[in-house]
Each structure stands twice: as structure tokens, then as C-alpha cells.
Design a protein that fits this description.
single chain; 529 residues; alpha+beta; Muramoyl-pentapeptide Carboxypeptidase, domain 1; six-stranded antiparallel sheet
Length: 529
Amino acid sequence: MNIDGYLKAGLVIAALTFSAGIVGCGQSGPVVVTAAPDVEPVDKNAGPDIAAMSPDGPLFPDVPGAEDAEPIPDYLRIGVEHPIVAVLQERLMELGFMDNDEPTEYYGEVTVNAVKHFQRQNNLVQDGVVGQDTLLAILSPDAKYYAVSKGVQGDDIQRIQGRLYELGYLASADQVTGNFGDSTEAAVLKLQKVNGLKEDGKVGQQTVNLLYSDEVKPNMLEYGEKSEVVLACQERLKALGYMTSEPDGAYGADTSIAVKRFQSRNDLVVDGYLGPSTRIALDSPDAVPNGLSLGDEDETVKRVQELLSKYGYLVSGNVTGYYGEITENAVKSFQRQNGLSADGMVGVQTIAKLTGNDVKKAPANSSGGSSSSGSSGNRGGSSGGSSSGSSSGRGSSSSGGGGAVINDSSGVSRLISVARSKIGCPYVWGAKGPNSFDCSGFVYWCLNQAGVRQSYLTSSGWRSVGKYQKITSFSSLQAGDIIVVNGHVGIVSGPGTVIDASSSHGRVVERGLSSWWQNNFICGWRIFG
């Protein structure tokens, strides 16, 4: 959509000619949005002759065809349904005031908050109601992108401060107040300096994107550091079964892998840094201990396999990072040989024994797991074994390319049933359930409720999750797939439909995979075969 054309009244009216199927709580159906036609940019100095809004007629009655358009209400407020709301949402998303999502005609709580933040930034009355002044300011080609600085207050400031605290730039949790003061400005300046951004102390588009990117550099204990604090954290990670090497106080590769695994098991952002929340969770008596079992796949699994291989329980060709039946059998053999309960799961006791000084090696006549049997459980073994073995509980898919899928015929229906049970729940930024969600929190909660062990990922993280079958063609998507679009994720529920936590609707909805999804499509991930 040509934003410059918004100053020309005709484009707004053109936008009103699109049709949209309204999707309410408990309903499903496609939302079809036809973009307004391109128009020539107007002379910004000419100043369009704009008539006042009227409940009895269109905003711009002199535009050809406007007499057929639905009149714009005097005010857009919560509960209003009108085509102009979708235009408004699209612009707010572009400017960074709303999370990316398919625009809708419904003016809900999330839209209200986005409008309030825009009004705050533009010195308008912060009532969340869109009158003529606010509408024209939002649609103006000169509209300012989201940016906050010292003196600003709001729920968005609290979220920013929370992330700054997580990354170690704010020293304590009591500084997460929702008030952008001196300490927050100093934290932002430090963040910008460490990460090579312009040091202005303001949180604008670049800084916001950095805060939630995988590339952000923290101001905390991280790779390469050595200290007593690192040692204490390592010892706790070892006690919980996450460390596969001896604690030495040096933050190396093993520590980073252990921290990531701990974060994924304890519903934390998986970034590998020992930030404040991670350290608090580590010290909590409720910290979830490690546990590896059939179907897991990550660097921790690979480290365990390397240890099993070292002691003769697994051949090196099966050190793949995937926990299949060959690994499970190797673990059982190790457990029997070392006086542990042979359940085939790697918990605290098994990790402690594997990393201890009194390990009993595999008997001399042990085969250590045949690498030629990779198809029965260790995906991607050096023997070239197929990943499609049904006995491993996981296999390859012929569509898309790369990764694997879980061979569970009931998995798709289970996932979709779980997702549908939450239709109507409110959209709340950062929420991971069970009664409110944002888009990535919704996918995370549904997968785990459906029996898929998946750590929390942001929508950005879902672009490269890797361990599932990647779907690169929009037309190849099928029920049960995770669909990843620019800034958003959802669960495909059937031919041409998706269930997602929608910021534009303000709740979890089931709706159609319209052209918006296709135009913003990045990839899909096939979870079940």
C-alpha cells in the first residue's frame, strides 16, 4: 500500500472498498483484504481539502465512487467494526506500534493500546479513540515511527525495562516500573554502545528490534568469562543434571549449552546467557531438573552421546544430537552396567554418573550400538541410515526439505484440538498461557500440551528452529504445520485455515490463510507425519 497516498482522500475511500469476513470468538472463516489501488503521490504542500467526518456521509464525499463506501464513523473506539480499522491497524504495525499480524476490521483492546501509544508520542489526547486528527496523523506519510525516551510512562515501557533487566542492563527487578527514568536511559545507552547502535538513549525501531533479536549482546555473565559466580551457577546446573563437564568457573561451550537447556525446560527465553531471571530460576527450589528421552534433539543430547561413545556404549557414527532408539538402548545399557534404574531416560542421576570418576565402561563384547541401524533410532548416523525408521518415533518427510517429523497419526488432531480449546482467549503480549497468549506463546503452549517437547521461541526464533521438517512452499502447508510469517506464527488447522493468537483481533481466533499470510510467508514446520 502506498503510504504517501494516504494524504490524498481518495486512497482512504479506496481502502473502504475491500471486503473482509469478520471472524469472531469461536468462529472460523477467511479474512479477505483487497489492497487499495496505487495512486500517484500528492504534493504534500498542496493541502487536501478535507471535510469533517460525518456519521451521515463519507469522509471525502467529492471522491468518485465514495457514495458507495461505508461512511467512516465520527470516532473509532473499542467495539467498532469498520473497514477503515484494518487500514489503521496496518499502518500502526508498519510504524511499530502493533505486533505484525493480518489486519482486521475490529477495533479491540490491542488496537486501543497501540493508538494510545501513538497519541502519546504525537502529543494527542491519550484516550485510545480515533477521531479525525488522530486518523490523519496515523495515515500521514510523515507519521513518526515508534520511539520512547526519558519521561515516558506506560505498559510498553515496563516491557522494555523487563527485557533490559533480562539482558543485564538494568541492575535490579525494582527498576522495572513502567517509568522511563534516568536508570532506564543509562541502560539503553549502554545497550546501544555495546551493540554498536547510535547512542541517543531512545528506544526506537532499531533498538526495539535489537532487544528481541538473537544477535543482541548482553551485559552479563556470558561466553568467555571466568568467575566465582559462573562456578556457582555451573555447580547448580550440574546438580540439576544440565552440565556434562566438571564446573571450573569458565563460561565455555558446555556452560552455554547447559544454560540453554535449562532455559528451555524452565520456560525462559533461550539465549544461553546467565541473566537475572535465569539465575533466579536456577536458585529456585522449583527449578525443573534436566531430563532427556526419546525424540529430544539438541546439543545436550550430543554431549551425552559423546560420553556414551567414550565409554563404549555408542559408536561414534551415532553421535548425531538426536535421541532415537539407539541412544535410548545405549542409555539403558549404561544404566544397567552402572547400577541405575534402566529406564532409558537421562536424568540427574544418569548425568551425574556419566560425568563422574567411577564410570563402568561397556563390556568388551558390547556392540556399542550398530551404526548400520541408524534407521531404527539415531537420525542421521554416519552410516547413512535413513531417518524414516518407524521404531524411532520420528522420521523424514518427502515434502519441504530437511529436518524430521514425528510419526504420530493422532498428533495433528490432538494439536488442533488443543489449539481450538483456547479460541477466544485474550491476546496479551509475552503471555504463554494457559488463559492468555501472544502468538509465539500460543504455539509454545499448544505444542507442549499436545505432547511435543518444544522450548519457547519468539516468532523470530521460529524462522530457524531446524529440528522439524521445513516447508518452503506456502501451497504445501497442511493441518498441524506451524506457519511462520513476518513477525508472527500460527498453527495450520485445515486446508486454508489457521489458529493463532491475533493482536489485531485481540484474542485467539481461527481464520483463513488469506493473501496476507501468503505475501508474508517465510516457512512452515511439519511437526507430525
